[in-house]
Design goal:
The protein is mainly α and about 170 residues long. Helix content is about 65%, strand content about 0%. The protein folds into two domains: about 70 residues, 434 Repressor (Amino-terminal Domain) (Orthogonal Bundle); about 80 residues, Helix Hairpins. Helix 4 packs antiparallel against helix 5.
């Protein structure tokens, strides 16, 4: 089953809606929803954009963004070794965060990237991998907390963006 199919099934289940209702919301045919849900048709990017704007379901959004970013957005962690409980997610997230802090203390980014050795570059690559682990677990934990506590992830992002803009981390 594809990421899109799992994401659509998750959305239908969590929103307690039918394929017909989803079709109406996305302005597509019920058949199109069925085809996407059953991996007979790919989700067009314009439909993905409409769905992301329409629904505030973090795991649905993560699946869609992971797919359409060619894997450059965190996936939904749902493998066999993942215990889908907020305390388990929190423990893994804390462990991953501690690992990256340790790694960042050990890796130096002071040297000009153009003159680093092969070994130094390998350490940078390992640091990036650990940063991606933290990003992915943080996103999964945030999504799970929003789901379980009934909090809007979109609203959380909107409110944080005000802070990020004030800190000069981003522009509006």
């Amino acid at each position: 089953m594809s990421v899109i199919s799992r994401s659509i099934r998750h959305l239908l289940e969590t929103e307690k809606m039918t394929g017909s209702q989803l079709a109406d919301d996305l302005n597509v045919s019920e058949q199109m929803v069925s085809h996407m849900k059953n991996d007979r048709r790919k989700m067009p990017i314009d439909i993905a954009e409409i769905a992301l704007k329409k629904f505030d379901q973090p795991f649905f959004a993560m699946g869609i963004m992971h797919h359409f970013s060619d894997g450059c957005a965190p996936p939904v962690f749902s493998g066999d070794s993942v215990e889908r409980h907020r305390l388990a997610f929190e423990e893994i997230m804390v462990n991953e965060a501690q690992e990256i802090v340790k790694t960042l203390h050990e890796v130096s980014f002071v040297k000009n990237p153009k003159i680093v050795t092969v070994e130094e570059k390998e350490r940078v690559i390992e640091a990036i991998k650990e940063l991606l682990d933290v990003e992915a677990w943080a996103k999964n934990l945030a999504a799970l907390l929003c789901k379980e506590y009934g909090i809007s992830l979109k609203e959380c992002y909107r409110k944080r963006q005000i802070t990020w803009i004030a800190r000069g981390w981003m522009t509006s």
